[in-house]
Design a protein that fits this description.
By secondary structure, the chain is mainly beta. It contains 2 helices and 13 strands; from the N terminus they run ββββαβββββββββα.
Length: 199
């Protein structure tokens, strides 16, 4: 391997990416993506679009997935801190419905590669977070689906306080410091896994 270390996560199809950071008194330099290093790790990826978002503390975005045009996503935080989560939605996977999360920060500079077939979401833990990601397919309007972020069957440990009321509503949920959870109107209407996928 060269400048980028790729580690498999406990769920197949998820990878933690750690760049080599070269720093001194002036600052630092790092490669955030290296096609050769990724291919040596078995990831032959073709990224077609870069996205960036900014969110304030307590914002939870997700859990989102694409229905007909699934995207692989390489995500990272360039400012602040988030807890980033992927949920396995691959029908025949032995880890279907299981989740894995990783803290991504401007300091640890970790990245998270999420293969096609996963739902994705993140919770902002800092005052502000700037989130960047590369995707393997273009955005297709109307192709987005979603899952309830607090589905008890998935049981993601977001580290928040509050009681499940049977919906994806953010009402009554807070971070440990009392910051209220903030979800979009759309993200509060997603259904649970069993109601979204009926096999």
């Amino acid at each position: 391997m060269g400048q980028i270390k790729v580690t498999k996560a406990p769920i197949e199809g998820l990878y933690i990416i750690e760049p080599a950071v070269h720093g001194d008194s002036r600052g630092y330099f790092m490669e955030t993506y290296n096609k050769r290093d990724m291919e040596e790790a078995g990831l032959n990826l073709n990224f077609v679009q870069d996205n960036q978002s900014m969110s304030v503390k307590g914002v939870l975005r997700g859990l989102h997935f694409q229905k007909q045009f699934p995207q692989g996503k390489l995500v990272r935080v360039i400012k602040g801190k988030v807890f980033d989560v992927a949920v396995d939605l691959r029908k025949n996977s032995k880890t279907y419905g299981k989740w894995y999360g990783v803290e991504l920060t401007e300091d640890n500079k970790k990245q998270f590669y999420i293969s096609e077939g996963f739902a994705h979401g993140f919770l902002v833990l800092s005052e502000v977070a700037e989130f960047c990601y590369k995707v393997t397919d273009f955005y297709h309007p109307g192709d987005e689906g979603g899952l309830a972020w607090n589905d008890p069957a998935i049981d993601i440990d977001w580290g928040v306080q509050g009681d499940y009321n049977g919906t994806a509503s953010a009402e009554g949920y807070t971070l440990p410091d009392g910051t209220k959870l903030i979800l979009s109107e759309k993200d509060q209407k997603w259904l649970n896994l069993k109601d979204t996928f009926k096999f």
